[in-house]
Each structure stands twice: as structure tokens, then as C-alpha cells.
Amino acid sequence: MPVIFSADIGIRSLLDKALITTTSYNNFIDMHDLLQEIEKLFVKNVLKILGNAVDCIKKMQNYYKRTNISSIFYFSGNWCS
Q: Helix-strand-coil percent breakdown of the chain, rounded to 5?
């Protein structure tokens, strides 16, 4: 039996839990303050993880340039920790 996802069910569930509110006159959905804080923390942490990954890649590229290694990929846990 296939699993069916519906935005209507998800929105109704959030409404039932009072995590969002809707207005009938302009069809806007407002998030609870807690959801907005969770969203901010999530985005902040994702950006931090991506920044760490970029730093790791730059360190590896610099190492390859210094050692003239172009075809061997050596990964050390010290670079990305």
C-alpha cells in the first residue's frame, strides 16, 4: 500500500497543536514563536556545518598544493575535526 503525503494533513496537525495559526481574510499562516526559534537554530547549525566542511576542503587543497600531490587523496581526521 503506497504512503500518501498531504500538506493539508500536516497543516491541520500543526493547527491542532497550536504551532501555527491561520487567518481567513488573507490566507496567511503564522508560525508560533517556538517554531521560528527552531528554524533559526537549524539554519545556523547547517551553515556552521557547511562552513566547517569548506574549511576542511581548503585545508586539503592547500596541503595538496604544498606537497604537489594531485592524484592521491589522503584524508586525515585532524584536518576536519
A: 60, 5, 30
Each residue of 21-33: pLDDT tens digit?
887 777 788 888 8
Contact 59, 79 (CB under 8 A): yes
Can you tell me the distance from the alpha carbon of 73 to that of 29, in angstroms, rounded to the nearest whole number? 49
Cα separation, 41 vs 79, whole angstroms:
26
Joined grid coordinates for residue 61: 587543497
- Find, among 33, 64, 9, 20, the residue nearest to 75 by Cα: 64
> Which residues in 1-81 belong to E strands, given as ranges?
20-22, 29-31
pTM score over 0.85: no
> Do 15 and 22 form a contact (C-beta atoms < 8 A)?
yes
